[in-house]
Design a protein that fits this description.
The chain has 762 residues and is α+β, with helices and mostly antiparallel strands. Helices cover 52% and strands 21% of the residues. It is built from 17 helices and 20 strands. The strands form four sheets. The protein has a five-stranded antiparallel β-sheet. Strands 7-6-10-9-8 form a five-stranded antiparallel β-sheet, sandwiched between helices. A five-stranded antiparallel β-sheet has the order 12-11-15-14-13.
Amino acid sequence: MIIITVILIVVMGLLTMGAISTIVEQAMTQQLEEQGSTYSRMAADNVANPLLDGNVLIVQRTIENLLQTGSGISYVYVIDNDGKVIAHTFSGGFPSSLTNTNILKSNQITNTMLLNVQSQGLIRDVGVRILEGLNAEIHVGFSQDIISQWTYNVRNLMLNLTVYGVLIGAVAALVLSTLITRPLKKLASHALRLGKGNLEEDIIIRGRDEIVELAGCLNRMRKDLFTGMQMLRQSEESNRTLLEAISAAGEGIVVFQDSENHKSAMTYVNEQYENLTGYSKEELFEMEGNEIVDSESRKQVEEVWVLSERGLILPKQIEIAIERKDGSKLYLEASYCNITYEGSQAIICINRDITEKKKTSMEIIRKNRELAALNELSKAISGQMNFKGKLDEALNTILQVVGKQAGWILVYNERDDVNKAELMCQIGILPEEALAQTKQFQRCTNFPPPNSNSIQVHSSLSTACPIKQLYLPDGTKALSHVYVPLSYKDRVLGVLNIIASDLESFAKEDLNLLNSIGLQLGVAIENAELWVELNKKEILRKQLLNKVITAQEEERKRISRELHDESSQTIAALGIGLKSAIEIMQFDQEYALTVLEDLKNKTSMILKELHQIIYDLRPSLLDDLGLMPAIRWYVESRLETTGMKPHVTFAGNPIRLPDDIEMTIFRIVQESITNAIKYSNAKNVYVGLQFDLNSLEVFIEDDGVGFNIEKAFSQIDGKESLGLLGMTERAELVGGEIDIKSRIDSGTRISLKLDFPDFETS
């Protein structure tokens, strides 16, 4: 023990000495680098001006004064980038080896390098570029001797401390070993007796140190082990009693333990577990734990074994399926727990039969799936567009729900008071076969009359029935079908027919579901008819609105003509008359001229405003030159005095469009420019027309403050919302589509897309 203590003290002393020496050396080196950087930069600043003036003598004196300051400086020299020495402090001549050493690169301002200079030992050379753009650098060398001296002193001090530590540690170890080993030997003999199972004899060691406390701990452990062994024996007896009690309650109990032949073998089963599985106790003892577990639950049971091997808590309750001896499947609610059985670790599993409960749960799940299917069906038939496509999706959903392969849907059309059936969609049979079935619908005796409002199953088809001649996608022959009326308020609007083979049947639950589907599809058909009526009314509304807008445009033409022929000429004549009055006035001519000139200017402004109103009402450029010149003139003239910069572009192959379409496009641009001037605070406004082969896109965009689109449209009485709605209505009347995009502080873009495949170019 003494030798070990001495070795430890020596090793620790050497490690400490090395660590402290390294720390001291690093600290001194860092201090020397910082000092060298400071002196070098100071020297560079001092010699910069003399070098710029070309005064080498002052440079020489400056570096000699720096050398005399001491601070560990060994030399100073100034050199240019070509290696030519400008000034130095070497008394015996400048060493030639330094001309190519520690030369700064073009992108370096300073650099430090450790050199071994002849006759001076280790030197830390600090090079600094004197001035950016100046072809010169200064080098200052600092001696490393002071660092070596400090390191040497520290090592001597640590070596002395280590020697004294060895002597003191050896004496202390000798004393402590004598005091410790004696009671430890006695404690070891007691531990050997504990290992042999002697738990009744107390451990007695006198004293007041930690060994006495350790002996007390061992003594308490001995008593706890003794008590635990007694409780374990009682626990095994209690476990047996508990198993018997649970068995009396009707639960199936099984205990799993690893054996030589099987992993997780069954070592205990009660009578109820035998009844659940159908196996005898002897047969179960020859099986592994998951041998009778169904494949769908085998992974769950294997996870239980893994948790038990890792000493983790087992699941309190899981649902598993087992295969009984007769091949039937049984669902059990299993609870697992780790126990000690017959002195070894084991897993107990208590099982409760939940087969009926599981079937009920599965039935509820099936109902939920049916409800989900009805929901999907509702989504499939919602909307007014492409009704046949919607019914096709609905039929596909229905067949998936009832598990059948083929069917079709027909709808009644009332024409001349005679009911006629129209095929809407089919799945699983050819279109021509479904069409033939629809035509023969009223003549076939297996089909009920069109007014029959009850679901019917036809399972005994006659040889003459055309459905019996059909084949399903899997190759089986169609031998039965179900008739489902699609009704609304006791009025049959159509029929859903689903075909089945002789291997299939229609359960009561399926028929109830199909009945609900028939009512839902009846509502969908009624809605489709209502949509048709609504579309007709919408077309009529558009026609009426078109007439209103046409009348408005005609009225604007009339007002434009009257203003041009009458009002503007009158104002022009007024301007000419006022100009003549200026020439004939004889008194106070200077004042009169000023007044009349002002009246003339105002008259010109009035004339300009009237012309602006005229062009706003009906721009003649639109009739004379067409859409694009009119738009360019309007945008540039309106934005000319607002401070906004117009950007008008046209792309593609322009064509002349019908007057109503050109007027609609012009009015949309006009309304957009007006809104931009009033509300946008923009700097730039972009207007463009893109002509494609059979379409046109118009956009108006600004870089202004933008607005909240939803809020604008919700302001029903607001001017801004009325303008936006007006543009939308105008676009819809000519078959176009308006797209308005805007965000606060992100500008606004209004786009008009218009298709014109039937228009002739001009």
